[in-house]
Amino acid sequence: MLRVLSGLQPSGDLHLGNYLGAVRNWVADQYEYDAIYCIVDLHALTLDIDPEELRSRTYETALDLLASGLDPERCTLFVQSHVAEHTRLAWLLECTATMGELRRMTQFKDKSAGRDSVRAGLFTYPVLQSADILLYDAERVPVGDDQRQHVELARELANRFNRRYGDTFVVPEAAIPKLAARVMDLQHPENKMSKSVNSPLGTVMLFDEGPDIVRKVQKAVTDTDGEVRYDPGAKPGLSNLLELLAVSTGRTPAEVAGSYQRYGDLKKDVAEALVELLRPLRERRAALAGDPGAVTALLSLGAAKAGITASATYERAAGAIGLLTPG
Ligand code: AMP
Ligand code: TRP
Question: Tens of pLDDT along 51-69?
């Protein structure tokens, strides 16, 4: 069975972009592939984060993912720092990557811009991500469009390492969803929905109450020409709404556009579809929150499972690169 792997930072509550662009596809993939999902707490250390907050967000992210439909019977869900091989392999890959290629990473450029103090870990972030992927021989890496460059780097490092030291790693490929790869902010449809931008009205949180979802969709920014047409370039706000209804109902945005004359009718149906889409998640989350011990136990089982593959791959890489096997 094909192996898929993806990771999510424990950086706060999930929004609709995270769900439609990433997590929803993870849920679907667990039925088709050997799926491994990692809460990347070590990556969260690359920016300023309060220790207590990191701890609680890591736990909350596990809850969010389980509520979103990840089933521990069907996939492996674990916390990155619980499997020591991630940082061990990251070092071997740091000695494979070059400064030049890391400097070209657009996420590094964005996140370091305008700061006078940038953590070294922010620079090597994509190498740790490559370790996450390569440790599990993952063939397929489902991520949003913004992570394409990082997966390319993992491919490049795998190929370079294999050329230099002999066949060691499976070369991964990004799996980017065709629809909803970029869910846009409802208030600023030229920007993607993002937790790092303060736009409460433009961001639908995964566990927003129904009436809040309705209000946000009703207030979504569109345009004034009044024509319902899918055209992300010229009509970003309206096209975003069409995409949201399309992914929620399994149609194409153009098909959806054909069924509406008025923006108001479209908005009403988008709101309704989103409320229905997210209702079961909200219900599952409430049930899980009542049993924190069970969530912790699932994570430790996940780490034990992941650790078996991770240590085999690490030993393979360490041997190939010339590290002496310990006794
Ligand atoms: P982040 O919120 O940046 O940590 O991203 C977590 C995951 O959600 C990544 O796979 C992203 O590519 C995806 N993602 C984040 N924001 C969006 C968005 N607005 N539209 C689609 N996917 C997104
Ligand atoms: N960098 C990814 C993000 O910000 C998270 C991530 C870490 C990841 N390790 C990964 C994604 C491995 C896919 C595979 O979304």
Answer: 999 999 999 999 999 999 9
Which of 2, 9, 69, 71 shows the shortest CA–CA distance to 38?
Answer: 9
Spatial distance between the Cα atoms of 77 and 4, rounded to a whole number of angstroms: 12
- Calculated CA dihedral for residues 128, 130, 131, 132, nearest 10 degrees: 90
Residue 140 — φ and ψ, nearest 5°? -130, 130
Can you give the pTM of this predicted structure? 0.92
Number of CB atoms found within 10 A of residue 199's CB: 14
| Burial per residue of 284-317, b for 16 or more beta-carbon CB atoms within 10 angstroms, e otherwise | ebeebeeeeeebeebbeebbebbbebbeebbebb
Q: Name the token pair of 24.
A: 């929803």
Name all residues whose Cβ lies below 6 A of ligand 1: 8-9, 11, 17-18, 21-22, 143-144, 146-147, 180-183, 192-195
For residue 213, give both structure tokens: 């979802």
pLDDT in the model for residue 316: 98
CA distances from 62 to 10, 59, 299 (A): 9, 5, 8
Residue 26, token pair as written in the block: 């993870």
Let me know: does 321 contact 165? Beta carbons within 8 Å: yes
3-state SS, residue 11: coil
Dist. CA 8 → ligand 1 center (Å) = 9
In contact, 118 and 112? CB cutoff 8 Å: yes
pLDDT reading at 180 higher than 80: no
